[in-house]
Amino acid sequence: MKLIYCLPLVLLALSACSTAPVDQTGTSSEPPADAGDIALQPLRVPALTALPETPARALAGKYQAVNWGALPGWQADSLDHVWKGFINNCKGLMRPVSGSLAMPARANPRAWQPVCQAAASAGLDADSRDTAAIRQFLQEQLQPWRLLTGDGQIAQNTVTGYYEPLLQASRSRSGQYQWPLFAAPQDLLTIDLGSLYPELAGKRIRGKQVGKRVVPYDTREQIVANADRQPPVIVYAQDPVEGFFLQIQGSGRAVLPDGSAVRLAYADHNGRPYASVGQWLAKQGEMPLAQTSMQNIKAWAQRNPHRVQEMMNVNTAMVFFREERIVDPELGPKGAYGIPLIGERAVAIDPTYVPLGTPVFLSTTYPGSGQPLRRLVFAQDTGAAIKGAARTDFYWGTGDQAGAQAGRMKQKGEMWLLWPRNAGVPSAR
Q1: What tens digit of pLDDT does each residue of 355-408 get?
Q2: pTM (2 decimals)?
Q3: Which domains does the chain carry?
Q4: Phi, psi dihedrals of residue 302, rounded to the nearest 5°
């Protein structure tokens, strides 16, 4: 998934973002696997006794119970893809939690066990479009809770957007396919600082061993320049700027010359800080900062092919990928919850207010307009810049159209958590 959650505008992602690529968005706490694997498995709901109780995690928000009629536009939501999302979400909910404070807060599996059991026996196919039956199930099983701030005020916050880039690539280096996208190198070390210092739980550094010392891992420039010791190449991108932008997003799809596609999912990074190529171009006098969109940077690269690598080397951070099969074109990469995202049905949230795995009703507007965008979504991702009550990043899906929507989105929004009706106030583990 995404490396840096700074895409309210493409301009911001390429010129104004300064979040370092640490604690990766979209990094699943689950073992690495193909993004679609969980979607291929049937929903298995264990007995309640098989889900151990773990200590509760404190949430920073407050929650006000309301009836379904209080949700603006609820009856107008077509609920397309919601049942597939709900079943997949239950597959995530029914995994026992580890209780590790290094992981983002998750919805309490024991609270969800009866609801997921009811979903498994509801008689609805995973691809069901039976809107009436789905709406009835949700209203019978779930209770809406309006999200409030810690001091009890209605939580309203910024809603930005993100997406899964699509680029043209080849397995072999030839012709226009010259820009490598790497798998993780074997000599990359990840050191978990929390294992030594509990106050640094969740903090990690990357490096490599040189003799008896661990030193910072190579910069982008060093990796590219050292042809004899480069990491394995998965594919070669046709366009350098698109390949670079895919690294900022942290995941994407590569379309090969035969028309097939593979997903490049985030695997790791070199631990170096992110730097803005847009700001570099502006300081070089190549274009005004306000014009450093991806499209303008691509045009500059086409006019200055001899300076493209120089430009990219400004950003010392390098992302490494792993290849995943695409088993369902409707499913995107995995978010931080380890569940494949569905376009326009998944969001990134701050898990200190909304536990991962929680269905949410989001009320906002379409990018650059006042047209209402109100729908049920699933809290399945997190991000370094997604902090605060109701702060949200809306996943638009795959490709250029999704990217155009994501790049323009910087709206205001509010949300309601949809929680098991008989489980009390939303809780986290």
Answers
A1: 999 999 999 999 999 999 999 999 999 988 899 999 999 999 999 899 889 989
A2: 0.84
A3: 26-162+327-420 (2.40.40.10)
A4: -70, -30
